[in-house]
Predict the structure.
Amino acid sequence: MSDPTNDAGHLTIGGVDSLQLAEQFQTPLYVYDVSAIRDQIRAFKRVFEAQHFNYAVSYASKAFATIAMYQVAKQEACHVDVVSGGELYTAAQADFPMADVSFHGNNKSEKELREALALKVGTIVVDNFYELQLLGHLLAETPERTQNILLRVTPGISAHTHAYISTGQTDSKFGFDVDSGLAFKAAKLALANPQFNLLGIHAHIGSQIFDVAGFIGATQKLANILKDWHEQLDYTPSVLNVGGGFGIAYTKDDDPIPAEDFVEAILKTLRAQNLPFDLPAVWIEPGRSIVGPAGFQLYTVGSSKNVEGLRPYIAIDGGMGDNLRPALYQAEYEAVKADDPNAQPTQDVHLVGKYCESGDILINHAHLPAVQPGDVLAVKSCGAYGYSMASNYNRNPIPAVVFAENGQAKLVVRRQSYADLTQNDLSYD
Ligand SMILES: Cc1ncc(COP(=O)(O)O)c(C=O)c1O
Ligand SMILES: N[C@@H](CCCC[NH3+])C(=O)O
Protein backbone atom coordinates (compact mmCIF):
# COMPACT_ATOMS: atom_id res chain seq x y z
CA MET A 1 0.00 0.00 0.00
CA SER A 2 1.37 3.43 -0.87
CA ASP A 3 1.96 6.01 1.83
CA PRO A 4 -0.35 9.03 2.02
CA THR A 5 1.05 12.15 0.37
CA ASN A 6 -0.05 15.74 -0.23
CA ASP A 7 0.10 17.81 -3.41
CA ALA A 8 3.82 18.37 -2.87
CA GLY A 9 4.33 14.60 -2.79
CA HIS A 10 5.41 14.70 0.87
CA LEU A 11 4.41 12.03 3.38
CA THR A 12 1.47 13.17 5.48
CA ILE A 13 0.70 11.97 9.01
CA GLY A 14 -2.79 12.67 10.31
CA GLY A 15 -3.16 15.00 7.33
CA VAL A 16 -0.06 17.04 8.25
CA ASP A 17 3.00 17.38 6.01
CA SER A 18 5.82 15.38 7.66
CA LEU A 19 8.49 17.82 6.45
CA GLN A 20 6.58 20.65 8.07
CA LEU A 21 6.44 18.61 11.31
CA ALA A 22 10.20 18.04 11.17
CA GLU A 23 10.82 21.74 10.62
CA GLN A 24 8.41 22.95 13.28
CA PHE A 25 9.24 20.44 16.02
CA GLN A 26 12.76 19.32 14.98
CA THR A 27 14.02 15.75 14.76
CA PRO A 28 14.20 13.10 16.10
CA LEU A 29 10.45 13.28 16.60
CA TYR A 30 7.66 10.87 17.52
CA VAL A 31 4.45 11.58 15.57
CA TYR A 32 1.10 9.84 16.03
CA ASP A 33 -1.80 9.74 13.61
CA VAL A 34 -4.49 9.97 16.30
CA SER A 35 -7.33 8.93 13.98
CA ALA A 36 -5.56 5.60 13.44
CA ILE A 37 -5.54 5.07 17.23
CA ARG A 38 -9.24 5.85 17.48
CA ASP A 39 -10.08 3.66 14.45
CA GLN A 40 -8.39 0.62 15.98
CA ILE A 41 -10.10 1.01 19.33
CA ARG A 42 -13.44 1.32 17.54
CA ALA A 43 -12.70 -1.73 15.37
CA PHE A 44 -12.15 -3.82 18.51
CA LYS A 45 -15.38 -2.56 20.02
CA ARG A 46 -17.39 -3.37 16.90
CA VAL A 47 -16.43 -7.06 17.15
CA PHE A 48 -17.76 -7.33 20.70
CA GLU A 49 -20.90 -5.44 19.84
CA ALA A 50 -21.59 -7.54 16.74
CA GLN A 51 -21.31 -10.67 18.86
CA HIS A 52 -23.32 -9.24 21.77
CA PHE A 53 -20.64 -9.70 24.39
CA ASN A 54 -20.15 -7.61 27.50
CA TYR A 55 -16.61 -6.36 27.17
CA ALA A 56 -13.85 -3.93 27.94
CA VAL A 57 -11.12 -2.84 25.56
CA SER A 58 -8.36 -2.09 28.05
CA TYR A 59 -5.49 -0.28 26.36
CA ALA A 60 -2.16 -1.69 27.63
CA SER A 61 -0.56 1.65 28.30
CA LYS A 62 2.98 0.29 28.66
CA ALA A 63 3.03 0.49 24.85
CA PHE A 64 2.85 4.29 25.01
CA ALA A 65 1.95 6.12 28.20
CA THR A 66 1.60 9.89 28.20
CA ILE A 67 -1.08 12.19 29.55
CA ALA A 68 -2.35 12.86 26.03
CA MET A 69 -2.65 9.16 25.27
CA TYR A 70 -4.66 8.49 28.45
CA GLN A 71 -6.89 11.39 27.38
CA VAL A 72 -7.48 9.78 23.98
CA ALA A 73 -8.26 6.47 25.69
CA LYS A 74 -10.76 8.29 27.91
CA GLN A 75 -12.34 10.05 24.92
CA GLU A 76 -12.78 6.63 23.29
CA ALA A 77 -14.30 5.16 26.47
CA CYS A 78 -11.53 2.60 26.74
CA HIS A 79 -10.27 1.02 29.91
CA VAL A 80 -6.50 1.07 30.46
CA ASP A 81 -4.05 -1.20 32.17
CA VAL A 82 -1.05 0.12 34.04
CA VAL A 83 1.99 -1.76 35.30
CA SER A 84 3.67 0.69 37.65
CA GLY A 85 3.07 3.52 40.04
CA GLY A 86 4.43 5.83 37.33
CA GLU A 87 1.87 4.77 34.74
CA LEU A 88 -0.86 4.97 37.38
CA TYR A 89 0.26 8.48 38.30
CA THR A 90 0.26 9.55 34.64
CA ALA A 91 -3.27 8.17 34.16
CA ALA A 92 -4.40 10.05 37.28
CA GLN A 93 -2.77 13.25 35.97
CA ALA A 94 -4.84 12.78 32.80
CA ASP A 95 -7.95 12.51 34.98
CA PHE A 96 -8.56 9.01 33.65
CA PRO A 97 -11.49 7.32 35.43
CA MET A 98 -9.83 5.10 38.00
CA ALA A 99 -12.72 2.61 37.98
CA ASP A 100 -11.62 1.68 34.45
CA VAL A 101 -7.98 1.02 35.35
CA SER A 102 -6.49 -2.44 35.86
CA PHE A 103 -3.22 -2.59 37.75
CA HIS A 104 -0.77 -5.27 36.61
CA GLY A 105 2.72 -6.29 37.67
CA ASN A 106 4.63 -9.29 38.90
CA ASN A 107 6.20 -7.40 41.81
CA LYS A 108 4.02 -4.51 42.80
CA SER A 109 5.49 -2.80 45.82
CA GLU A 110 3.56 -2.01 48.98
CA LYS A 111 3.86 1.66 48.06
CA GLU A 112 2.36 1.05 44.62
CA LEU A 113 -0.48 -1.03 46.04
CA ARG A 114 -1.23 1.69 48.59
CA GLU A 115 -1.27 4.26 45.78
CA ALA A 116 -3.69 2.07 43.80
CA LEU A 117 -5.98 1.68 46.81
CA ALA A 118 -5.87 5.40 47.58
CA LEU A 119 -6.81 6.22 43.99
CA LYS A 120 -9.55 3.55 44.05
CA VAL A 121 -8.23 1.68 41.04
CA GLY A 122 -11.01 -0.47 39.58
CA THR A 123 -9.20 -3.78 39.31
CA ILE A 124 -5.96 -5.16 40.68
CA VAL A 125 -4.62 -8.08 38.69
CA VAL A 126 -3.01 -10.21 41.37
CA ASP A 127 0.04 -12.04 40.07
CA ASN A 128 1.39 -14.16 42.95
CA PHE A 129 0.85 -15.38 46.53
CA TYR A 130 3.04 -12.65 48.03
CA GLU A 131 0.82 -10.01 46.46
CA LEU A 132 -2.37 -11.79 47.49
CA GLN A 133 -1.19 -11.72 51.10
CA LEU A 134 0.15 -8.16 50.97
CA LEU A 135 -3.01 -6.80 49.38
CA GLY A 136 -5.07 -8.71 51.96
CA HIS A 137 -3.11 -7.02 54.79
CA LEU A 138 -3.51 -3.57 53.24
CA LEU A 139 -7.24 -4.04 52.76
CA ALA A 140 -7.60 -5.20 56.37
CA GLU A 141 -6.67 -1.65 57.43
CA THR A 142 -10.09 -0.56 56.12
CA PRO A 143 -12.31 -3.57 56.91
CA GLU A 144 -15.43 -2.08 55.29
CA ARG A 145 -13.85 -1.88 51.85
CA THR A 146 -13.66 -4.45 49.08
CA GLN A 147 -11.42 -4.56 46.02
CA ASN A 148 -12.10 -6.06 42.61
CA ILE A 149 -9.34 -8.42 41.62
CA LEU A 150 -8.46 -10.74 38.76
CA LEU A 151 -6.01 -13.59 39.16
CA ARG A 152 -3.34 -13.68 36.48
CA VAL A 153 -2.72 -17.27 35.43
CA THR A 154 -0.10 -18.81 33.17
CA PRO A 155 -2.10 -21.21 31.06
CA GLY A 156 0.90 -23.16 29.77
CA ILE A 157 0.52 -21.90 26.20
CA SER A 158 3.67 -20.96 24.30
CA ALA A 159 3.12 -18.20 21.78
CA HIS A 160 5.28 -18.18 18.67
CA THR A 161 7.08 -14.92 19.19
CA HIS A 162 10.42 -13.63 20.45
CA ALA A 163 11.35 -15.43 23.71
CA TYR A 164 11.66 -12.09 25.55
CA ILE A 165 8.02 -11.24 24.85
CA SER A 166 6.45 -14.65 25.37
CA THR A 167 4.61 -14.84 28.70
CA GLY A 168 1.98 -17.60 28.71
CA GLN A 169 4.30 -20.58 29.07
CA THR A 170 4.60 -22.42 32.41
CA ASP A 171 8.25 -21.37 32.82
CA SER A 172 7.49 -17.66 33.14
CA LYS A 173 7.90 -15.03 35.84
CA PHE A 174 4.27 -13.97 35.47
CA GLY A 175 1.14 -15.33 37.11
CA PHE A 176 -0.16 -18.40 38.92
CA ASP A 177 0.65 -21.65 37.15
CA VAL A 178 -2.41 -23.61 36.17
CA ASP A 179 -1.08 -27.12 35.55
CA SER A 180 0.60 -27.49 38.95
CA GLY A 181 -2.53 -26.35 40.80
CA LEU A 182 -1.21 -22.99 42.00
CA ALA A 183 -3.98 -21.07 40.23
CA PHE A 184 -6.62 -23.21 41.94
CA LYS A 185 -5.01 -22.62 45.32
CA ALA A 186 -4.94 -18.86 44.64
CA ALA A 187 -8.64 -18.89 43.73
CA LYS A 188 -9.48 -20.68 46.99
CA LEU A 189 -7.49 -18.13 49.01
CA ALA A 190 -9.02 -15.18 47.17
CA LEU A 191 -12.56 -16.49 47.66
CA ALA A 192 -11.91 -17.03 51.36
CA ASN A 193 -11.25 -13.32 51.91
CA PRO A 194 -14.50 -11.29 51.80
CA GLN A 195 -12.55 -8.12 51.07
CA PHE A 196 -11.58 -9.50 47.66
CA ASN A 197 -14.21 -9.41 44.96
CA LEU A 198 -12.79 -12.00 42.57
CA LEU A 199 -14.02 -10.91 39.13
CA GLY A 200 -12.37 -13.76 37.26
CA ILE A 201 -9.08 -14.61 35.60
CA HIS A 202 -6.54 -13.01 33.35
CA ALA A 203 -3.97 -14.49 30.98
CA HIS A 204 -1.63 -12.84 28.51
CA ILE A 205 0.26 -15.29 26.33
CA GLY A 206 2.76 -12.91 24.75
CA SER A 207 3.22 -10.07 22.36
CA GLN A 208 3.50 -9.56 18.58
CA ILE A 209 1.69 -12.85 17.93
CA PHE A 210 0.55 -13.64 14.38
CA ASP A 211 -0.98 -17.07 14.86
CA VAL A 212 -4.53 -17.17 16.16
CA ALA A 213 -4.05 -20.77 17.33
CA GLY A 214 -2.37 -19.65 20.59
CA PHE A 215 -5.37 -17.48 21.48
CA ILE A 216 -7.83 -20.26 20.64
CA GLY A 217 -5.87 -22.71 22.81
CA ALA A 218 -5.64 -20.21 25.64
CA THR A 219 -9.37 -19.46 25.50
CA GLN A 220 -10.21 -23.17 25.69
CA LYS A 221 -7.85 -23.61 28.60
CA LEU A 222 -9.20 -20.58 30.45
CA ALA A 223 -12.77 -21.77 29.91
CA ASN A 224 -11.81 -25.15 31.39
CA ILE A 225 -10.27 -23.47 34.43
CA LEU A 226 -13.45 -21.49 35.00
CA LYS A 227 -15.59 -24.64 34.63
CA ASP A 228 -13.38 -26.35 37.17
CA TRP A 229 -13.63 -23.49 39.65
CA HIS A 230 -17.38 -23.35 39.12
CA GLU A 231 -17.70 -27.05 39.86
CA GLN A 232 -15.25 -27.32 42.71
CA LEU A 233 -15.50 -23.91 44.35
CA ASP A 234 -19.09 -23.02 43.48
CA TYR A 235 -17.67 -19.90 41.85
CA THR A 236 -19.12 -17.95 38.90
CA PRO A 237 -16.80 -15.46 37.19
CA SER A 238 -17.99 -12.19 35.74
CA VAL A 239 -14.82 -11.36 33.74
CA LEU A 240 -12.43 -13.27 31.51
CA ASN A 241 -9.44 -11.15 30.53
CA VAL A 242 -7.59 -12.70 27.60
CA GLY A 243 -4.77 -10.13 27.47
CA GLY A 244 -3.33 -8.55 24.35
CA GLY A 245 -0.50 -9.45 22.03
CA PHE A 246 -2.14 -9.11 18.62
CA GLY A 247 0.65 -8.79 16.04
CA ILE A 248 1.07 -5.88 13.64
CA ALA A 249 2.97 -5.36 10.38
CA TYR A 250 6.34 -3.64 10.77
CA THR A 251 7.56 -4.34 7.23
CA LYS A 252 6.09 -5.42 3.90
CA ASP A 253 7.05 -9.01 4.77
CA ASP A 254 4.69 -9.05 7.78
CA ASP A 255 1.17 -10.07 6.92
CA PRO A 256 -0.87 -10.31 10.14
CA ILE A 257 -4.62 -10.72 10.19
CA PRO A 258 -6.43 -7.55 11.29
CA ALA A 259 -6.06 -7.24 15.07
CA GLU A 260 -9.82 -7.38 15.61
CA ASP A 261 -9.96 -10.78 13.88
CA PHE A 262 -8.04 -12.29 16.81
CA VAL A 263 -10.82 -11.09 19.07
CA GLU A 264 -13.47 -12.55 16.80
CA ALA A 265 -11.75 -15.95 17.01
CA ILE A 266 -11.47 -15.70 20.80
CA LEU A 267 -15.17 -14.88 21.18
CA LYS A 268 -16.28 -17.67 18.84
CA THR A 269 -14.10 -20.13 20.75
CA LEU A 270 -15.48 -19.03 24.08
CA ARG A 271 -19.07 -19.30 22.95
CA ALA A 272 -18.40 -22.85 21.76
CA GLN A 273 -17.24 -23.93 25.24
CA ASN A 274 -20.80 -24.25 26.58
CA LEU A 275 -19.97 -22.78 29.94
CA PRO A 276 -22.35 -23.91 32.71
CA PHE A 277 -22.98 -20.25 33.62
CA ASP A 278 -23.67 -16.98 31.77
CA LEU A 279 -20.86 -15.87 29.48
CA PRO A 280 -18.54 -13.59 31.44
CA ALA A 281 -17.60 -10.19 30.09
CA VAL A 282 -14.49 -10.51 27.92
CA TRP A 283 -11.74 -7.98 28.47
CA ILE A 284 -8.84 -7.54 26.07
CA GLU A 285 -5.60 -5.65 26.66
CA PRO A 286 -4.15 -4.60 23.32
CA GLY A 287 -1.21 -2.21 23.39
CA ARG A 288 0.87 -2.55 20.25
CA SER A 289 -2.09 -3.00 17.89
CA ILE A 290 -3.68 0.24 19.12
CA VAL A 291 -0.68 2.56 18.94
CA GLY A 292 1.96 0.73 16.86
CA PRO A 293 0.72 1.33 13.31
CA ALA A 294 -0.32 4.89 14.25
CA GLY A 295 3.23 5.95 15.17
CA PHE A 296 6.05 7.36 13.05
CA GLN A 297 9.52 8.53 13.92
CA LEU A 298 11.12 11.33 11.93
CA TYR A 299 14.89 11.57 11.74
CA THR A 300 17.37 13.71 9.83
CA VAL A 301 20.15 12.11 7.82
CA GLY A 302 23.69 13.11 8.81
CA SER A 303 26.94 11.30 8.13
CA SER A 304 27.53 8.26 5.98
CA LYS A 305 30.34 5.79 5.47
CA ASN A 306 31.19 3.88 2.31
CA VAL A 307 33.74 1.10 2.15
CA GLU A 308 34.33 -0.56 -1.19
CA GLY A 309 32.60 -3.96 -1.24
CA LEU A 310 30.52 -3.34 1.91
CA ARG A 311 27.01 -2.05 2.35
CA PRO A 312 27.00 1.68 3.14
CA TYR A 313 26.25 3.06 6.60
CA ILE A 314 23.91 6.02 6.77
CA ALA A 315 23.47 7.68 10.15
CA ILE A 316 20.44 9.51 11.49
CA ASP A 317 20.15 11.84 14.47
CA GLY A 318 18.54 9.30 16.84
CA GLY A 319 18.74 5.54 17.33
CA MET A 320 18.62 3.04 20.18
CA GLY A 321 17.79 5.69 22.78
CA ASP A 322 14.50 6.50 21.08
CA ASN A 323 13.80 3.03 19.68
CA LEU A 324 15.44 0.18 21.57
CA ARG A 325 13.51 -2.56 19.82
CA PRO A 326 15.97 -3.35 16.98
CA ALA A 327 18.85 -3.67 19.46
CA LEU A 328 16.80 -5.61 22.03
CA TYR A 329 14.70 -7.93 19.87
CA GLN A 330 16.26 -7.61 16.40
CA ALA A 331 12.99 -5.93 15.46
CA GLU A 332 12.67 -4.81 11.86
CA TYR A 333 11.29 -1.56 10.51
CA GLU A 334 10.99 0.28 7.22
CA ALA A 335 11.99 3.86 6.46
CA VAL A 336 10.89 6.15 3.66
CA LYS A 337 12.04 9.55 2.51
CA ALA A 338 9.58 12.06 3.91
CA ASP A 339 9.63 14.23 0.79
CA ASP A 340 8.88 11.28 -1.52
CA PRO A 341 7.73 8.22 0.47
CA ASN A 342 6.79 6.17 -2.56
CA ALA A 343 10.14 6.69 -4.36
CA GLN A 344 11.73 3.49 -5.66
CA PRO A 345 14.61 2.31 -3.45
CA THR A 346 17.98 2.28 -5.17
CA GLN A 347 20.22 1.14 -2.32
CA ASP A 348 20.38 -1.34 0.58
CA VAL A 349 22.08 0.34 3.55
CA HIS A 350 22.67 -0.02 7.26
CA LEU A 351 20.58 2.75 8.75
CA VAL A 352 22.38 3.44 12.00
CA GLY A 353 21.93 5.69 15.00
CA LYS A 354 24.28 8.10 16.74
CA TYR A 355 24.78 6.10 19.94
CA CYS A 356 28.17 4.78 20.94
CA GLU A 357 27.29 1.11 20.29
CA SER A 358 27.96 -1.02 17.23
CA GLY A 359 24.55 -2.60 17.85
CA ASP A 360 22.85 0.75 17.36
CA ILE A 361 21.50 -0.26 13.97
CA LEU A 362 17.98 1.00 13.51
CA ILE A 363 17.39 -0.86 10.24
CA ASN A 364 19.93 -3.42 9.13
CA HIS A 365 18.69 -3.55 5.55
CA ALA A 366 17.10 -0.21 4.81
CA HIS A 367 15.99 0.02 1.21
CA LEU A 368 16.17 3.68 0.33
CA PRO A 369 16.42 6.01 -2.62
CA ALA A 370 19.51 8.25 -2.72
CA VAL A 371 19.66 10.42 0.41
CA GLN A 372 21.71 13.47 1.37
CA PRO A 373 22.60 14.99 4.74
CA GLY A 374 19.60 17.02 5.87
CA ASP A 375 17.00 14.73 4.28
CA VAL A 376 14.20 13.66 6.60
CA LEU A 377 13.40 9.96 6.93
CA ALA A 378 10.20 8.57 8.39
CA VAL A 379 10.27 5.18 10.11
CA LYS A 380 6.85 3.53 10.09
CA SER A 381 4.84 1.50 12.62
CA CYS A 382 6.87 2.62 15.60
CA GLY A 383 4.14 3.85 17.89
CA ALA A 384 4.45 0.99 20.39
CA TYR A 385 7.32 0.47 22.83
CA GLY A 386 9.47 3.17 21.23
CA TYR A 387 8.82 6.28 23.30
CA SER A 388 7.87 4.11 26.29
CA MET A 389 11.24 2.33 26.28
CA ALA A 390 13.30 5.42 25.43
CA SER A 391 16.38 6.21 27.47
CA ASN A 392 18.89 8.97 27.98
CA TYR A 393 21.81 6.77 26.99
CA ASN A 394 24.83 8.88 26.03
CA ARG A 395 22.89 11.73 27.63
CA ASN A 396 20.78 12.25 24.55
CA PRO A 397 17.52 14.07 25.33
CA ILE A 398 14.32 12.09 24.71
CA PRO A 399 12.55 13.50 21.62
CA ALA A 400 9.25 15.33 21.59
CA VAL A 401 5.91 13.69 20.79
CA VAL A 402 3.38 15.27 18.43
CA PHE A 403 -0.24 14.22 17.85
CA ALA A 404 -1.55 14.86 14.34
CA GLU A 405 -5.24 14.62 13.52
CA ASN A 406 -7.44 16.09 10.79
CA GLY A 407 -4.61 18.20 9.43
CA GLN A 408 -3.70 19.70 12.83
CA ALA A 409 -0.53 19.02 14.80
CA LYS A 410 -0.20 19.41 18.56
CA LEU A 411 2.86 19.01 20.74
CA VAL A 412 1.93 16.57 23.54
CA VAL A 413 5.35 15.86 25.07
CA ARG A 414 8.09 18.50 25.04
CA ARG A 415 11.56 17.53 23.86
CA GLN A 416 13.89 17.10 26.82
CA SER A 417 16.45 19.85 27.21
CA TYR A 418 20.04 19.45 28.41
CA ALA A 419 18.84 21.01 31.67
CA ASP A 420 16.30 18.18 32.02
CA LEU A 421 19.18 15.74 31.81
CA THR A 422 20.94 17.13 34.85
CA GLN A 423 17.94 18.24 36.89
CA ASN A 424 18.21 15.32 39.34
CA ASP A 425 22.00 15.35 39.50
CA LEU A 426 23.47 16.59 42.77
CA SER A 427 26.91 17.98 43.29
CA TYR A 428 29.76 16.02 44.92
CA ASP A 429 32.19 18.88 44.96
C1 LIG B 1 -0.35 -8.29 30.86
C2 LIG B 1 -0.20 -7.68 29.53
N1 LIG B 1 -1.28 -7.22 28.91
C3 LIG B 1 -1.19 -6.62 27.71
C4 LIG B 1 0.02 -6.49 27.07
C5 LIG B 1 0.03 -5.80 25.74
O1 LIG B 1 0.57 -6.55 24.74
P1 LIG B 1 0.58 -5.99 23.27
O2 LIG B 1 1.20 -4.65 23.28
O3 LIG B 1 1.40 -6.97 22.53
O4 LIG B 1 -0.82 -5.95 22.78
C6 LIG B 1 1.17 -6.97 27.67
C7 LIG B 1 2.48 -6.91 26.99
O5 LIG B 1 2.92 -7.89 26.43
C8 LIG B 1 1.07 -7.57 28.95
O6 LIG B 1 2.14 -8.02 29.57
N1 LIG C 1 8.40 -4.18 24.80
C1 LIG C 1 8.05 -5.29 23.98
C2 LIG C 1 6.77 -5.90 24.33
C3 LIG C 1 6.67 -6.22 25.76
C4 LIG C 1 5.31 -6.49 26.08
C5 LIG C 1 5.02 -6.29 27.52
N2 LIG C 1 4.72 -7.51 28.23
C6 LIG C 1 8.16 -4.95 22.52
O1 LIG C 1 8.57 -3.92 22.18
O2 LIG C 1 7.86 -5.74 21.68
Notes: Residues 12-32+294-422 form a domain with the Lyase, Ornithine Decarboxylase; Chain A, domain 1 fold (CATH 2.40.37.10). The chain has two domains: 12-32+294-422, 51-287. Residues 62, 165, 207-208, 325, 329, 385 surround lysine (ligand 2) (CB under 6 Å).
